[in-house]
Amino acid sequence: MPRRIIIIGAHAAGCDAAAAARLTDRQAEIIMFTNERYAGYSRCGLPFVIGGHIKSFQDLIVFPSSYFRMNRIDLRAEANVTSIDAKAKTVSVQYKDGREETIQYDSLILATGARAVIPPIKGREKKGVYTLRTIEDGEMILEALKGAKSAVVVGAGLIGLEIAVAFTERGIKTTVVELLPHVLPAMLDKDMADMVQKELEAKGIRIITGKSVDEILGDDRVTGVMVAGEQIPADIVVVATGVRGNTELAEKAGIALGETRLIKVNMRMETNIKDIYACGDCVESIHLVTRRPTVSQLGTTAVRQARVAGINAAGGYAVFSGVLGAAVTKLFDLEIGAVGLTETFAERAGIKTDSMILSGKTKASYYPGALPITIKLVVDKETEKVIGAEIIGGEGVAPRINALSYAIMKEMTLRELAKAETCYAPPLSETWDPVTLTAQALLRKIKPR
Questions:
Q1: What's the pTM value of the predicted model, to 2 decimals?
Q2: Beta carbons within 10 angstroms of residue 397's beta carbon
Q3: CATH 3.50.50.60 fits 4-36+77-114+244-313, yes or no
Q4: What is the Cβ-side half-sphere exposure of residue 408, based on CA atoms within 13 angstroms?
Q5: Tens-digit pLDDT profile for residues 79-109
Q6: Are 411 and 385 in contact, with CB atoms under 8 Å apart?
Q7: Exposed e or buried b for every residue in 73-91, given b needs 16+ CB within 10 A?
Q8: Active site members
Q9: CATH code that applies to domain 118-241
Q10: Which pLDDT score is estimated for 449?
Q11: CA torsion 379→380→381→382, rounded to 10°?
């Protein structure tokens, strides 16, 4: 009998798990369930469709139905898995037409993802209040933009700022409200975040930090929000205050959660119940620097975990070592990236740090079109190992974040980074890469001659 693998969830994690399982076991029967209408699309692309950079939401579908047919993956959309019986090794499913079915599995992969959460703001049930998580959400927001003049985005994380930029690009007067003291609080320290905020404000976005939305105003439709006694007009309010992992199904089945309240897994992405694996936004990760549990709800984390879960569920062997949280985005013409720990997070983890911020150019300064780039390096004071980096620039941010991710992963010291060899050609780079220069400057600061 061929092995039957059931996968719950059909986005980044679910689809990559299915692909890895199929490569590992050509004979396996693979059944995938999603409660959404569309499967296998990129959620990260949603703000860029709203901004008009990508033509349509359909362009975000990475795994078309032909992919599932070709790989003999039985995809069942708009199907809700209601329970898991770990003892009997079955799942119960309810289909769109009301039909119910109980199906046996050999291996089960939970890729249930996360959902957008709206904090208990007064008036949050009014028409015109949205979150952005699915294609349907995106379609509703695009429709609502047609008659809109102003918008408020609650939350200045990656998605919040990407939405605010998209609205501004469509000519809508946009205000961002962030409860924490600065923008991108999970990604940047305040010194770097303030530079980003200044650039966004120069492009016409109003940003309010350190305040919460007290109330969403209007009768049954949104007309504005109340922030610290000020009424801000808004035809649309988008709440981008983060997501919460969908762990209810797992909990009900007796699967253990970790200290971050996400599903706890071992290095093989296996839960505390044999033959049940989990991956993606519903799963807790281990941070490679602190060695502590952390939340890493990124597409890159999802697909890396999914490959491991898929291989193991299909009888192979693979391990997932942990995360550094490498992330990057583009807001207008500004690229912003980070990897490892910020100074703030390092302090919280009890690590004493040294850091340095330095600005350079992306090409030889005499070459036309050389753009500014600012780098912040964070090192462990005791070991002098590089543990974090934040970069803001006009170009070339992602490859530098990738290089620094390798450096942190290989536990490179500041001295080693300062001596690293980099390439040079006037139209492409400086003789000294800004990363190397920052490392050298930080080394001088730590060890004055």
A1: 0.95
A2: 24
A3: yes
A4: 29
A5: 999 999 999 999 999 999 999 999 999 999 9
A6: yes
A7: bebbbebebeebebeebbb
A8: 44
A9: 3.50.50.60
A10: 55
A11: -140
